[in-house]
Design a protein that fits this description.
Radius of gyration: 18 Å
Largest sheet: 8 strands, antiparallel
Number of helices: 3
Structural class: mainly beta
Shape: globular
Helix content: under 10%
Order of helices and strands: EEEEEEEEEEEEEEEEEEHHEHE
Length: 297
């Protein structure tokens, strides 16, 4: 894509492609933004489109990897795919244990149109390590003020943990102060969020699949978020579930898009009831991303 356009493709009256399944077959969907990761093998991401989030232990999820801007962790494969590669060795906390990976975020942000819908979708090949304990690939969206998390909203479109060929979708919202009877906080039951939980994802570690979310603002009294795998809805959350105030704060504003593979952290540890990664966790697993797109209706 032309650098002057910074990867944006405003294509009028365009339906989502076969690889970016339309969540709704009706209406004049328009492509508001697309990224196809074209570029020479081994080259880096387009810095006009993406920025790196780097550091270790700075994201609040207890993950243990160092997120880097190194092309060993984040690069184009020369065939239209972005590869996010996990490197390292050793069990968490063991002497000499060291893990690296990559996390990138769009410089642009995207706002669900009032009275309309926004679909965010990506074609992803999940990591397939021989031993995946601690792997945590993700495709997600974050509000414009991460310091206000979770009130400012987070929408997880794809998360998998521990190399199980599963997937899940989650909404984070509300607050960390209003205590619920189950020990969580706020209307989104943080820090867990309101989610589908891990679901089977056959073939998701053996090929590209489309992971999508639609934010539907057509009914101002009944907005909704819907999650899709290969065009089939598997989860939804309605405004009435969390209340108008929390919903407005979390949903009705711009979102950036993120791609990353974490290693270790609360989600994989709680799910396996173990400490990850282990001494048997396999390095070299990669998440490949063929395309990312935003559609408006």
């Amino acid at each position: 894509m032309a650098a002057a356009a910074a990867g944006l493709a405003y294509l009028a009256n365009t339906q989502p492609t076969q690889n970016n399944y339309a969540a709704s077959p009706n209406g004049p969907w328009k492509a508001a933004w697309t990224e196809d990761f074209s570029g020479p093998e081994g080259s880096g991401i387009n810095p006009e489109i993406w920025e790196f989030d780097t550091g270790q232990g700075v994201f609040g999820t207890n993950e243990i990897e160092m997120m880097t801007a190194d092309r060993a962790n984040v690069h184009l494969d020369g065939h239209g795919d972005l590869d996010l590669v996990v490197r390292g060795h050793g069990a968490v906390g063991a002497p000499g244990s060291y893990w690296t990976s990559g996390r990138i975020q769009t410089r642009s942000s995207f706002t669900p149109p009032p009275g309309g819908q926004m679909e965010v979708t990506a074609s992803v090949w999940q990591p397939d390590p021989a031993q995946g304990l601690g792997y945590w690939p993700a495709f997600w969206m974050l509000g414009s003020d991460p310091s206000a998390w979770p009130a400012d909203g987070e929408i997880d479109i794809l998360e998998d943990i521990n190399g199980l060929s599963e997937h899940s979708g989650t909404l984070h919202c509300g607050n960390l102060t209003q205590r619920n009877p189950d020990g969580t906080t706020g209307p989104c039951h943080e820090p867990n969020g309101i989610g589908s939980g891990p679901l089977p994802c056959p073939g998701c570690q053996a090929g590209f699949h489309s992971y999508s979310v639609v934010i539907d603002r057509r009914d101002e009294n009944g907005q909704q978020i819907r999650w899709y795998l290969d065009g089939t809805e598997f989860f939804s959350v309605s405004e009435s579930t969390v209340g108008a105030a929390a919903w407005t704060a979390a949903v009705d504003h711009p979102f950036s898009i993120l791609l990353n593979v974490a290693v270790g952290g609360t989600y994989p540890d709680v799910t396996c009831r173990c400490a990850t990664p282990t001494g048997q966790t396999t390095p070299g697993g990669e998440m490949a991303v063929r395309s990312v797109a935003v559609y408006m209706f």
